[in-house]
Specification:
The protein has about 100 residues and is mainly alpha-helical. It has helices at about 5-25, 30-55, 60-90. The longest helix has about 30 residues, at about 60-90.
Length: about 100
């Protein structure tokens, strides 16, 4: 049986990032785009943890801690904006963002 190496983790991370990028580029719903952005962020976190683990230091894992902290702040601000858009326009499509100009 073969052991799982760094390349395996990086391939999974790249696949998750590509799926997230595809979701951002092709979808119109803000919630789906938002979830795709979070998937891309988690793919980067997976790559950081894998590199940290195989290099034998904690630098990548410390960066992931800060990335998760920033993602939590992003979630609160992003979801508040999506809720405000839904209340104002009764939909959560990207095209409705241009109508929020002052």
């Amino acid at each position: 049986m073969t052991s799982i190496g760094l390349g395996h983790y990086l391939v999974v991370s790249a696949a998750l990032f590509c799926i997230g990028l595809f979701g951002v580029v092709t979808r119109r719903s803000l919630l789906v785009i938002y979830m795709s952005l979070e998937l891309m962020l988690n793919a980067a976190n997976l790559a950081l943890v894998a590199m940290s683990r195989f290099n034998g230091n904690l630098d990548g894992q410390i960066m992931v801690f800060f990335t998760i902290t920033v993602a939590a702040a992003e979630v609160s601000v992003g979801l508040a904006m999506i809720v405000a858009l839904c209340r104002k326009r009764r939909s959560a499509h990207v095209e409705d963002l241009t109508t929020l100009k002052l």
